[in-house]
Amino acid sequence: MIRQGHDDRHILSDCFDQITGPNWQPAYQIFHDTLIDALSSVDNISESKASEIVKQAFWAYLSGGIKRGYKEKYFSKNSSFWGSITKRLKMVPGAVHLARNIRAKLKNGELTLPTLLSPSSLYHEDFMPVYEIINKQPVITQ
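The structure assignment produced for this chain is given below.
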């Protein structure tokens, strides 16, 4: 998974506030209809079948977001998502060491964009396909 972090990024309110807000249903309807159109035309399936696929996938996504958001807001840090990840990492031999190595590489600048773009970087060859995908201009079809 690749995410971009910067000072101008939009931080969303929590999941509960989003789905109880006044703009939720109209925005979801656009999302739903757009996905149904794409699924039915690309996969050559009925709109009712596409609708059921969208419903199932979004329900799974939404239930995870609601549960995770609730735990993050109302439980202590030790029982949070990251706390449980840390506990699980400690049970996997070598995982904590790997996480520390990655954190050190981030702090030392080994995983910055300018470094990764340099052919002399140890990670350049692995990073370039990802970079090219991110920077590829979208093809707009009508």
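Interim note for the steering committee: The mean pLDDT is 81. Residues 99 and 140 are 39 Å apart (CA to CA).
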